[in-house]
Amino acid sequence: MKLDSIFYPKSIAIIGASTEIGHVGNDIVKNLVKQGYKGKIFPVNPKATKLYDLKCYPNISAIKSKVDLAVIVVPGGVVPAVLQEAAKKKIKGAIVISAGFKEVGNLDLEKQVKDICQKNNIALVGPNCLGVINPENKMNASFANIMPPNGNIAFISQSGALCTAILDYAQKLDIGFSKFVSVGNKALMSEADLFNYLANDKKTKVVAMYVEQLTNAPALIAAAKKLTHGKNPKPVIALKSGRTSAGASASASHTGALAGNDAAYEALFAQSGIIRVETIQELFDYLRVFTHNELPKGDRVAVITNAGGPGVLTTDTVILSGLKMATISDATKNQLKKHIPPFANFKNPIDVLGDARADRYEAAINILEKDKNVDSIIVVLTPQSMTEFSKTAQAIVAAKMKSKKPIVASFIGGHLVNLGIKILRSHGVSTFNFPEQAAKALSALTDFRYIKKEKNNSHFKFKNINKVAINKILEASHKRGQTLLPEVDSLPVLHHYGFPTLPSHIATTAQEAHEIAKKIGKKVAMKIVSPDILHKTDSGGVMLNVAPENVAIGFKEMMKKVKKNVPTAKIEGVLINEMIKEKGVEMILGAVKDASLGHTIMVGLGGVYVEVFKDVAFGLAPLTKNDALKMIAKLKSKNILDGARGQTVLDTEALIECVGRLSQLLMDFPNIKELDINPLLVLPKGDGVKVLDARIVLE
Amino acid sequence: MKLDSIFYPKSIAIIGASTEIGHVGNDIVKNLVKQGYKGKIFPVNPKATKLYDLKCYPNISAIKSKVDLAVIVVPGGVVPAVLQEAAKKKIKGAIVISAGFKEVGNLDLEKQVKDICQKNNIALVGPNCLGVINPENKMNASFANIMPPNGNIAFISQSGALCTAILDYAQKLDIGFSKFVSVGNKALMSEADLFNYLANDKKTKVVAMYVEQLTNAPALIAAAKKLTHGKNPKPVIALKSGRTSAGASASASHTGALAGNDAAYEALFAQSGIIRVETIQELFDYLRVFTHNELPKGDRVAVITNAGGPGVLTTDTVILSGLKMATISDATKNQLKKHIPPFANFKNPIDVLGDARADRYEAAINILEKDKNVDSIIVVLTPQSMTEFSKTAQAIVAAKMKSKKPIVASFIGGHLVNLGIKILRSHGVSTFNFPEQAAKALSALTDFRYIKKEKNNSHFKFKNINKVAINKILEASHKRGQTLLPEVDSLPVLHHYGFPTLPSHIATTAQEAHEIAKKIGKKVAMKIVSPDILHKTDSGGVMLNVAPENVAIGFKEMMKKVKKNVPTAKIEGVLINEMIKEKGVEMILGAVKDASLGHTIMVGLGGVYVEVFKDVAFGLAPLTKNDALKMIAKLKSKNILDGARGQTVLDTEALIECVGRLSQLLMDFPNIKELDINPLLVLPKGDGVKVLDARIVLE
Question: What is the ipTM of this complex?
């Protein structure tokens, strides 16, 4: 594996090794030397002769032995030259700690670094990072001076400064790591590369990551799925910051207005099977449960407590987290009654009563662990006068060691419960200050059971698509210098891509409008065509159910209204098509392009109230059929599609097909910046859907 | 004050004092003697002569001195006799620790206790409680063996077992209390009484409570408002368990189906100005911020950090918590530049950079504290190699002591940051493991600024209401043994209470239907009348826009459909009224009675999709106009009422009046168990509303 040179080098050169205490170039040599790395270490510093009892070299070439990894701490501008030298020396891995690249606007310098590494097949971490730690071989090639214990968590961080806080906090909680990587600017190596590597890393059971920005969604999703849906599935837990960064508020489409940048990430994580956490606390809570427990067989939780109030609070959080309270069988209840006074509560939560000593907890845990209706156990303890803190903790540890079911604990209190907590922690029982954390983390663990089993469906594939015709329309628009395609151009694009559209015509005069309507011979819908009007209804630019004989007068009225409401709008005419009579529900289907991730697809309740109810769901192109199904399942309006309250069942299949068609359209025409199909009328089951209105914005 | 006998007794008798170590009756005497209570202590135990060097008395009467408070630990059945004796002795307060009352079904015994105390004007805490602690006079009249430090938090708990956990955890966090009360079964003294007392308690600045069930909402709301909206407003923070307790799922109304028990509590807290927390962790987070900080002037937060990632994470939580990131003025930026390297980030969050020592933090805090655009400050610190933990903490403490603005801190890490955290904690700076907790708590503190200022409006008052006519309808229904009033009875009830209803008639044959429609002379709406059908549309029991000439055939069709769909339903006829032509939006207005709290009122989007979108808000009767306004403001459909997307502005005023009318109706006719007005058609502004359909269920 290419990244072995980063994590398992037999020899490391530190270019920019410094004799100055407190300097990063000194810290790294010290961390390698003092924290137990057994390979060869070559400090490179032309001005020094010795550093921590090691010989210093004036440059890389001066090192005669083979070097696997270069850790580079020289000033940013010198990095390309150092990498060239490293390439000459056939070094296979480089960690560039140095800053001064993309993060301060030096895009060219960063590109040089990337190109050299790419050309010479050097695996590159950074630049602008804290470094890499591999506790397995005690290699601390970073300037954080903590060597975490061996563990099964691979941690990937886009923030170097957060790494030191994570390492410090993890040490306090007895959390170990398999790999610890500060990825910095990700000039060459990204999370996707690490995912591919970690999928085969036997030491890694769980992957945790702190993320600020990701790129190339398709590659990332594919790599993440190797981890989360592979033969030996590994959960990936992500903390993503920048949730509130300003969205595309000045957008020309509904989709653009509703799809903030975070919606794209939310979709990315969902489609990858990545578990998203909201806070650092939650990240640690999840990590503790994931590292110490097997996946439960199901979602039924037994709660054991010595206090009623905390029992009820735990029940609340179990249910709110999406888990179920296990139903305790009569046989189990009878067993429990042998050990617990009869006036206790044998319905879940099982109240072992305030005067419970360790033996009562022990009996309850062992009995419930054997109950087939119990998938996992939360043990809650509060300090009462008879409570045995250490002995109860030991009983939990013993039960946990024998059991394949998740058993987690919450000892609520301060100094009194502290010793018990320490015993639990040091013996691999996940323990939490409060039961709500336990329930939430347990719920994530239980969910992963379903995530890893999800079918990894193939992508949609549609044939008989007339790309030539579409290209013609787009080119014509390009020639006119037009990026916003009006309905008259947008609808044909969709038509040629197999979307069911209505034949429609544009009228520029009342007379023309009358003639078009007469030809249609039925009631029509009239809509204003203007590049400056997004909200047609608001501007008075929509008339429905107009009889052919009233179309001419309607045209004049509409012009008057629109000119009054939006005096500056350039008006290109009125779009006229047959009024659809069939009953259906108006949905919206749209897309917006994110510069780094790609196209976000949105589906939801459409019509005039789309922004009132915001009942929409997001996905990231390309979508699998499973992704599209999950998007629609998230909608409240799903109930309407399913025929809620005695209404007609609608054609959800046809809607899903449209979602897929849109996903493929965006792959074929990536220069579509925004797209809105609104409304997309979903007709009764078997009757399909109809595109009633659409607009496309090109890059 | 009556409760002074509970909190400030000069002498205490413990009836049931025990010589047996580990017995509750021994613990209480020990806690009183050993933890510093300076008043007189009289252990009552006929079998003992001495206890902890105190003389024992065979019974209360044997005590010659005056006794202010009786703490009772005898078996439940003996408690009434002891209270009788206490009454004879003119004891003014009693804490009944003993169990065996309502909680095990002994309602009679509990009533005896209540009656004796009520009759003899004895303030009663309990029964079935842990006791009372007043750190001010070192009185620990409980069996929890922790004496918390003096503080400004009054803690009220409905769970005794939780108390010990809270005391232990609070001690670890250096949190003190002004009063600590385990209320037990609340036979006589409830939270409302404590609120009334604490409103005048100078030692109490914040009230915290753990609640499982509350009763008598009107009294509780009134008492809570004395605290939260009084002259000297004190925040009340409540943790309510049982959020997920099964609601009234087999309900006969939409309101009943949607208004779970928790919706009533949510409304109760909102109307009282009580701040609700979801978890024990949040309770402590809020308490720490509320006790140590003044209320901020506004919602603009400055974040100071030595790490980019945590800075972004903090920004996220600041905004998601409903606060704003302060805009830093140029003047302030220039000040900052004198102390912080120029390549730092001077836009909020202010990044003092990874190599920041205490002086840089100190300068940043002091400069930002003086900026008029900054209302509060969050200081974030991660352990980097140059970080000065203690000195930075000291700098924060010094700034906090000089400032009136809230300043809170989050030192993220483990052992490295620990000493800093201890310094902050012991000097009254609220500190959090993670910045997300800080932001959320700060947001609650900021919100309280608005809560306490809210106008305490008076209740709705309507005149010209025909209660006599309503009583006649209700009595007739009672005589028929009918609790579910059909439309033909429900609509007149509403009509006589001033709701705008449509004249409507019931037809039992096609011929009758035809005649009614002919008389109306316009298109009509037809709806099935059956006590067994809630979802009329689903059953085929609704026809709209029927021309008079088609009504007879419509009648027959409807009968056929309904009989097919709901063969067992008893059908009473078809309700016919004029079809409303005006454009409006269908809302729902309803109520459901909760056994302990009273009537929950629901308003929201109505029509057939009420349970699809669940866009509803809840209130608790009686409502003030401000309560009703706030309910409607919570709805997404508020945008529709306001004329979203170019639609007509609707008559929200008339809707609010209806909400108020319903609140008063429920006060006047408390035996209404459930009520649904669906749809309530809200017409364009000035045109009012129309009740199109309704049903009432009586107790």
Answer: 0.88
